[in-house]
């Protein structure tokens, strides 16, 4: 029972972590010169959801994460919803096609995903006719931002993996929990 | 229907995931965007964290800056103290210069008014004895000064040159007991000899008892003797005492010049009112300014009286 409760708490905990991460990245990294190395916790969480969550659950979480990001941003409404959802769908599709065996592969995907997310955001802004002042900044920060995101991903993904393990959300823990529940149902 | 939804569940969800963000895009980005209920919940959670982080950052930065500031405080304090001392000295110097400028401007106006050839000199010493009241100035023969030249200020008569060196001169003030100046009362034209008496008072001698002299009358130099030009203020009558019998009356004079505050003087090297005879000595030609040597026949015996000693 406790394990089931812990498993149910995974989603609120993930939302809370993302909210705290958004608060940190919007306050701690708001001062000069840290603003140039500001990571994107929400994007890491979206990547994590794209890889480790079911399609429906991950998509809903992505919408919620994007909404948290929009709360803390002056970006046009729907921009983050669209861009993060595009990333989620893309990552989810990739996870079905390729195998991500270790952390290094995950970090590589994170770096490329970050670059893709920035370009997608720029593209949406271009559709909204808001990109004329933004493209130069996006291109300048494309590689540094991707590198920072990749570096931060090393720790964030470990913490998220630990959270999934603790809350029995990871594949191994989930399988172990289901096996145990099955045994309980069979009276063993 | 349900079977149909289950069959195409993935595509329906995918369609919704694509549709929702696109519908959510608001092209009118400048429209007011109020928080919804669940937005407020998130903000309620995150805003205290943001405040705490910002507060911590501010204090860390402020603490670091204060630490750096304290490291340099002592050096800055010393530098500022030194700068303050220099500025105070500068202010005092400027104030002194301003006062000096006022005094010198007065002397200049006085010189131009009386058409005098003068040399400005600074008082550098006073008489070593309290019984005598001479002063020493920083101009001498090199500036064209010669004995028996008149020394005045814008306020009036100071005295005359007693003796000179190359770069200094001793002045017998009118307060000195051995000084005597022929003076007249400006109002009644009564005549007398002003002699030194005390540190701040002179007396008018040889004024006839019948002369009209009242306290407050201004005495001016008569011009007799050739040392002082005519009309220079000497002093003001402060007290008059007429004896019941006798030829003269006792008159006390308060000098026009405040000798306690005397700092700069004018040495009159030539004035038009006095018929002086110029005798250029070899020493005078060496100076920066040629001064006339006074040797007037009209010089009275009193004005030529020399102090019996030097006391500087």
Question: Quick gist of this model?
Answer:
Chain A is an all-alpha fold. Chain A has helices at 2-8, 10-27, 41-52, 55-71, 79-97, 103-127, 135-166, 171-185. The longest helix of chain A has 32 residues, at 135-166.
What portion of residues of chain B belong to β-strands?
A: 15-25%
Beta-strand residue fraction of chain A: under 5%
Largest sheet, strands/sense/barrel of chain A: none
Structural category of chain A: mainly alpha
Order of helices and strands of chain A: HHHHHHHH
Helix and strand string of chain B, N-terminal first?
Answer: HHHEEEEEEEEEEEEH
Give the fraction of residues assigned to helices of chain A. over 70%
The outline of chain A comes out as elongated
- The helix tally of chain B amounts to 4
CATH architecture of the largest domain in chain B: Beta Barrel
Give the end-to-end Cα distance of chain A, rounded to a whole number of Å: 17 Å
Can you tell me the overall shape of chain B? Answer: rod-shaped
Can you put this structure into words, describing what you see?
The complex is a heterodimer of chains A (188) and B (312). Chain A is mostly helical. Chain A has one domain (2-185). Helix content of chain A is 77%, strand content 0%. Chain A has helices spanning 2-8, 10-27, 41-52, 55-71, 79-97, 103-127, 135-166, 171-185. The longest helix of chain A is centred in the last third of the chain and has 32 residues, at 135-166. Chain A starts with a helix and ends with a helix. The mean pLDDT of chain A is 86. The termini of chain B are far apart. Chain B has four helices and twelve strands; from the N terminus they run αααββββββββββββα. Mean pLDDT of chain B is 78; it is low at 274-312. In chain B, the strands form two sheets. Chain B has a six-stranded antiparallel β-barrel.
């Amino acid at each position: 029972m406790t394990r089931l409760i812990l498993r149910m708490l995974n989603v609120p905990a993930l939302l809370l972590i993302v909210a705290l991460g958004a608060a940190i990245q919007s306050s701690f990294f708001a001062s000069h010169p840290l603003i140039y190395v500001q990571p994107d916790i929400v994007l890491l969480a979206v990547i994590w959801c794209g890889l480790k969550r079911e399609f429906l659950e991950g998509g809903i979480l992505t919408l919620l994460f994007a909404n948290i990001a929009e709360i803390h941003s002056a970006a046009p409404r729907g921009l983050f919803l669209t861009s993060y959802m595009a990333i989620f769908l893309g990552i989810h599709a990739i996870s079905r096609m390729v195998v991500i065996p270790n952390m290094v592969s995950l970090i590589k995907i994170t770096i490329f995903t970050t670059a893709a997310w920035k370009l997608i955001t720029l593209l949406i802004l271009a559709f909204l006719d808001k990109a004329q002042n933004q493209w130069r900044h996006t291109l300048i920060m494309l590689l540094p931002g991707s590198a920072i995101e990749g570096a931060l991903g090393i720790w964030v993904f470990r913490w998220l993996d630990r959270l999934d393990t603790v809350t029995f959300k990871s594949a191994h823990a989930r399988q172990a929990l289901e096996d145990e529940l099955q045994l309980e149902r069979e009276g063993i | 229907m349900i079977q149909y939804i289950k069959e195409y569940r993935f595509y329906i969800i995918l369609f919704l995931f694509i549709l929702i963000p696109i519908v959510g895009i608001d092209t009118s980005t400048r429209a007011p965007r109020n928080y919804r209920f669940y937005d407020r919940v998130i903000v309620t959670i995150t805003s205290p964290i943001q405040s705490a982080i910002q507060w911590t950052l501010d204090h860390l930065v402020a603490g670091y800056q204060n630490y750096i500031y304290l490291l340099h405080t002592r050096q800055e304090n010393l530098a500022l103290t030194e700068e303050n001392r220099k500025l105070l000295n500068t202010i005092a110097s400027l104030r002194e210069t301003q006062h000096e400028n006022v005094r010198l401007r007065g002397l200049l106006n006085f010189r131009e008014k009386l058409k005098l050839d003068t040399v400005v000199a600074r008082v550098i010493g006073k008489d070593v004895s309290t019984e005598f009241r001479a002063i020493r100035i920083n101009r001498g023969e090199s500036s064209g000064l010669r004995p028996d030249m008149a020394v005045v200020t814008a306020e009036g008569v100071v005295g005359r040159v007693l003796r000179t060196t190359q770069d200094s001169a001793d002045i017998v003030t009118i307060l000195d007991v051995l000084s005597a100046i022929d003076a007249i009362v400006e109002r009644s034209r009564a005549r007398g000899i002003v002699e030194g008496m005390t540190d701040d008072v002179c007396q008018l001698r040889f004024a006839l008892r019948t002369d009209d002299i009242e306290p407050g009358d201004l005495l001016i130099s008569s011009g007799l003797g050739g040392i002082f030009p005519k009309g220079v203020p000497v002093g003001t009558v402060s007290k008059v005492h007429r004896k019941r019998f006798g030829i003269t009356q006792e008159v006390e004079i308060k000098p026009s010049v405040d000798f306690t505050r005397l700092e700069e003087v004018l040495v009159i090297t030539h004035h038009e009112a006095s018929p002086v005879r110029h005798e250029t000595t070899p020493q005078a030609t060496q100076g920066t300014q040629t001064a006339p040597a006074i040797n007037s026949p009209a010089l009275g015996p009193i004005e030529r009286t020399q102090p019996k000693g030097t006391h500087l």
